[in-house]
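Ticket #4471: structure output looks truncated?

Reporter: J.K.
Steps to reproduce: submitted the chain below (291 residues) through the standard prediction queue, then opened the result file.
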Amino acid sequence: MKFNMFDDFRFIFPRKIDKYKNKHKLECDFNKVNKEYCLNSFVLKTGRPINHYQYLKNNFTALIDGVAIFEKNNHEEITKGLKTIIYKKNKIFKQMQGYNNEIFIKNKKMGFLSFSLRLSKAINRNMAEHTEILRKSLIRFFNNMRSKKFYSSDVVGYFWVMLQDNGGFPYMHVVFHFKNNDFNALVGHEIIETWIRVVNFYKVEGELLFLNATEDFTNGTGIYCLENKGEILTMKTYSTNTDWNDVDYALFKQFKGYNKKLFDQYLYALAKKSYFINPKGRAVGFSSIKD
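Returned output as attached by the reporter:
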């Protein structure tokens, strides 16, 4: 499978071969773009959100003789910003793909656990304050995880991606790589306990959502989900939850072992949904790989 996000935007960024055929707005799949991509960014300095998708949908007219036509004349800044975002998303995917391939070479039986962390919204925090507390919370979370026995003995690496929830706020999607796929529910409880201590330290409210699980992980008892304020969430074998951006990772149900083809598609979907605070903001991070 070829991975190049610019292929979904050839009506704006045509290849040489695309310039010989005109394409009108009705021929463009804006629904696919809206469903699969996060084309939003937020400039902390100005407090201004930018919605590139809405601009495209409202102003793109056609691709005529190789030139994208817009209703408004000030489209150069928007299309330049969009091009930068797509380039960065492609780069994020390649980074994640290379990182995970390197882990797999050293750990042929590896399994993984994906979950999301976010801070609850508060009316007395603006986006800049919210983002800064989230950043500090993530650092503290990973630092505290290092004291956990399962982390030091079984986790061979992790990465995180910044995504945007349905309310427009950033959150972190985290993936832990394990040496194998037989971790149990205690792992989930210790992750939850660590996140609770972090948000309590910063005197904020937080949420945690597990997105996949194995039979041993749920162990028939379920796991605690902070989104349901401590209620037990019973998860079926190899089940998945819908993430806070409404993405359903049903395609990527926890597979026995590591399926590179499916995992690459999972990483590609994550990269498409990556969210940037500030044009040059960081939207992905990796741990060092254990030998």
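Triage note (M.O.): checked the attachment and the full token line is present. The two ends are 30 Å apart (CA to CA).
Status: closed, working as intended.
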